[in-house]
Structures are given as C-alpha cells and as structure tokens.
Amino acid sequence: MKLWDRLTVLFRNKYAALIFFTVVFFLTRFLFLGADEINPDGVNWHYRSQQFIVGLKSGDFERTYQHYHPGVTLMWITGAPIEIYKQITGYTTYDQYNFLGFNTVAKISVVLAQLVLTFILLCYLSKVAGFKTAYLSVFLFSLEPFFLGNSRLYHMDVLLALFMFIALLVSWLNLKEFSYKRSVLAGVFLSLSFLTKSIGIGALFFVLIFCTAYFANKKDMKSFLKYFFTILGAFILTTFILFPALWVRPVYYLSEIFGESERVGIRKGHEQIVFGETTQDGGILFYPLVMLMKTTPFLIAGLILCFMKCSGSISALVKNIRSKYSNPYLYLAVFYLGYFFIMFYPSKKIDRYMLPLYPLLSLIASYGFIRFYSFLKTARSKKIFMSGAVFFFTVFYIVPVISYFPYYFTYTSPIFGTAASANRVIAQKPFGIAVPALKDYILSRYGGEPELGFIDTKPIKAIYSNSKVADIRINGVSDYELLILGINEEMPDKVLQSGTRFRKDSSLYVNGLEYWRIYVKEDK
C-alpha cells in the first residue's frame, strides 16, 4: 500500500490515529526528560510548589499565593506528585543528588497533563472543524520544535496555550447550542487559563464581550443572561475553589496579581539582544521575528495556502455582518490577533509568550492544506501534492525532531540560515539548557568538583555543591576556579576590572551553538 493510501486509512480509523499520536507524543517528550535542562524559573517553581502543598497541609492558605503569574495550575499539577515521590523515597528536602529525580517527576506530571489536555482539545476541535482537520492541526503544533521544546520545560506557557484554546472552543460551541454543562465547562477552562498566567484573564473578557455583541445582534436577552452569568459564575467559583489564598484575602491577592503583572510585565522590561543591540524592550519587530524564526516553513506554507484559497470566502464573511458571528475561524482569529497585538505593548517581551498562537496557526495551516488538496482535480495532481507534503513534512519536522533532540528549545527556522545566523537576529537565552550535561562535562574534563562562577547560578546550584558556586557579578574572582558564560552572556565589569585575566579553555556546543564557554584563570 502506498504512503498516501496509508495516511488516508489512518485518518479514517480514529483509534489508530489516536494511538499513533500518543506514541509520537511519548517519544518526543518523555525520552531524556528531566536531565535535559534545568531552567531557572523551574527551580523557582519547585520551591513554590513545595510551599503551595505546605500551605494546603497546614491550613496556612495564604502560602498558596507564591507568584503573580499566579501558576496555581502548575503547582496543583506538580505539587501532589512531588509530595507522593517524597513519601515513596523518604526524601524530605531537595539536594544536589536528588534534584534531578524531583525535576523528572515534576516534568512528567506537566507532560502528562499536556497529553490529557491535548486529547480534550482534539475532541472539541473535531466538533468545530471535523476530525481530519482537527487531528492534523493538533499533530502539527505538537511537533512544532519550539512548541515541543517548551512543552518539556517545567513551566506554564504550553499549559496556558492549551487551556486557553480549549476554553475558546467550548465557549464557541456553547454559542451555537447552549447547554449549562458546556457553559460551566467554558468557565472552568477560562479560570484555569487565568490561574496559569494572569494574561489568561483576557480570554474571559473576550468571551463575555463577544457573547454580548452576539446576543445583541440576535436580540435575545434571555439567552444572553444564561450564557453570560453561567460562564462568569463558573469562572469565579473555580478560581476560588482552586486558589485557597483567595479564601483568606481575595481583594489583596487579586490586586497583587494584577499590580505585579503591570509592574514587572509592562513597565520593568526584560533584557533581549536584537540585531546585536541589548535592550529592555524588544520593540515592534520582536514578535513578528519570533514567529518567523521559531515556526517551521511547513506551517508557514500551510498558512499561505489557506490565505490563497480562503481569502475570497473571508471577504464575503466580512461584508455580511451576521456571518461574522457564525464562523469559528473568525471567532478564534479575532481573539488571537488581539492577543498578538496586545503583547506588543508590554516592555517585557519573551519569545515563548507567542506559544498560545501555535494551536490557531496549526488549525489554519491544516485547513489550508486540506482545502488546497480538495481543489485539485486529478488523481495525479493529488498524488504529487501528497508526495511533496510528505517530503517537506519529513524535512521540516522529522529531521529537526531527530537532530535537535532533546534540546528543541534552541530551534530556529532554516529560513534564517544556520543557528549562528539566527542568533545574530534574536539572541538565544541560556535558560538552563544542557546544564546537567555541562556539569558532567566539567567533572570529566577538570576533575573533582572545582569552584564555579556563573551569571545565573540557580540551575547549576540545583545539582552542584552550593558552596562551590559563585555569582560572578557579585563575588570576587578568588571565589571560583572556572568562570562559565552561557550563550550571549558577556564578562561582567566586576571581572574585567578585577585585574585577573581569564582564558577560554573549552566550550560545550548545543545544536550548532557555542552554548557554554568555560574560562580558566591565567597565571600571573
């Protein structure tokens, strides 16, 4: 049986398709999970999750507020499994020897949660777009290397992307055919979006504003009140149930969340290197460049095909005011375009903040591929199209999945040439990538356990003797034997002005990038 015939059979057999997806999901996410990276935010969330569980067990519910994000869903997902792991192993605290075990448990918990959410997303997306389009879109964004890399982190952005997309799908289906069960479910997922990251509140505002316009257009006040208040009520109830700090001081902690989000996210900024210039605000080109750099050409080709084949129907929809309220693609596009442009405003710009766009982009690209295929008239042209699609899918998905393993976080599109070329456009962050490998490299090359100097000490301190790790921006040069700089990190002024000279001795490369540079002191 030829390849395109096998793919057709796979689509027709839903159980086989789901099993195939699950196998791919496990192979790309669970292998070498835990020891691939230790991101500094993840180290923080280990501590916060512990405090969250301590607060629940002791009844000190204010301790369940740990951060303005607020990351409540992440702490629920990982806190309980880590507590069970403690009971099984007898470990009571983290140390350099058991941290990777805790890290693996936390990341497995997050990945399993993502798998469950992906199946829920597929279920509701199938009701909106049909199983074939839904399956292809879920498959595409799950294999997008940058999305895949972030899904392996102990972090929240992929959870936010999944919660938010499910909430929008359920809320849309509820507009078409109201049910109290679905309305409550929409409110629950909108709450989970907000409890993951505070920006998720935007999804609630969008759903409520859109339903107001929708029912005003229909002149149906009774349906509006049912829809609006069941979703809002479910949102409020879920938020209070899952976030015990609100049981104690709701006004205070909600004001803390939004106040800190405004201070840190909007005003404080975040250091980025764009076109070789260091800045606290990546500027208006930052996110468009991120989307080009961190998205595969295959997905971009699907978007182009959709635009070519769907532009006429979109124009017709825009001209007809009533049709604007009956098309799920426009519903989703309005929200995500709003999200994309709103993210231009905060001075704090980080590439992973674009992850929520990937499910929609994959849906549009899948629709473009399938729509283009259906327009082809002859069996020969369809065969050529399928052969080309399989070839380019292999080049832009299968090859990176193999070659970038397990450090998918470092992916850059071949449109930008080599990894080094892309790094000159938007500089890669170290973010704890390959820190366990770096530790092994140091011990094997330099012997013993030498004293180390880092800029960001959190990742290495998690698996190294804390007393032998110094912050080179603060400590004197006598406090460490080896000075280590991550990719795009520069020697601090404190070191340059110390009078002690350091010589680059070796480097650890990751996916074509000189990721970690190791310096030794020169003899005077």
Automatic annotation (TrEMBL):
<keyword id="KW-0472">Membrane</keyword>
<dbReference type="InterPro" id="IPR050297">
    <property type="entry name" value="LipidA_mod_glycosyltrf_83"/>
</dbReference>
<keyword id="KW-1133">Transmembrane helix</keyword>
<feature type="transmembrane region" description="Helical">
    <location>
        <begin position="15"/>
        <end position="35"/>
    </location>
</feature>
<dbReference type="GO" id="GO:0009103">
    <property type="term" value="P:lipopolysaccharide biosynthetic process"/>
</dbReference>
<keyword id="KW-1003">Cell membrane</keyword>
<dbReference type="InterPro" id="IPR003342">
    <property type="entry name" value="ArnT-like_N"/>
</dbReference>
<dbReference type="GO" id="GO:0006493">
    <property type="term" value="P:protein O-linked glycosylation"/>
</dbReference>
<feature type="transmembrane region" description="Helical">
    <location>
        <begin position="329"/>
        <end position="347"/>
    </location>
</feature>
<feature type="transmembrane region" description="Helical">
    <location>
        <begin position="385"/>
        <end position="409"/>
    </location>
</feature>
<feature type="domain" description="ArnT-like N-terminal">
    <location>
        <begin position="115"/>
        <end position="248"/>
    </location>
</feature>
<keyword id="KW-0812">Transmembrane</keyword>
<feature type="transmembrane region" description="Helical">
    <location>
        <begin position="105"/>
        <end position="125"/>
    </location>
</feature>
<keyword id="KW-0328">Glycosyltransferase</keyword>
<dbReference type="GO" id="GO:0000030">
    <property type="term" value="F:mannosyltransferase activity"/>
</dbReference>
<protein>
    <recommendedName>
        <fullName>ArnT-like N-terminal domain-containing protein</fullName>
    </recommendedName>
</protein>
<feature type="transmembrane region" description="Helical">
    <location>
        <begin position="284"/>
        <end position="308"/>
    </location>
</feature>
<dbReference type="GO" id="GO:0016763">
    <property type="term" value="F:pentosyltransferase activity"/>
</dbReference>
<feature type="transmembrane region" description="Helical">
    <location>
        <begin position="158"/>
        <end position="175"/>
    </location>
</feature>
<feature type="transmembrane region" description="Helical">
    <location>
        <begin position="353"/>
        <end position="373"/>
    </location>
</feature>
<dbReference type="Pfam" id="PF02366">
    <property type="entry name" value="PMT"/>
</dbReference>
<feature type="transmembrane region" description="Helical">
    <location>
        <begin position="195"/>
        <end position="215"/>
    </location>
</feature>
<keyword id="KW-0808">Transferase</keyword>
<dbReference type="GO" id="GO:0005886">
    <property type="term" value="C:plasma membrane"/>
</dbReference>
<feature type="transmembrane region" description="Helical">
    <location>
        <begin position="227"/>
        <end position="248"/>
    </location>
</feature>
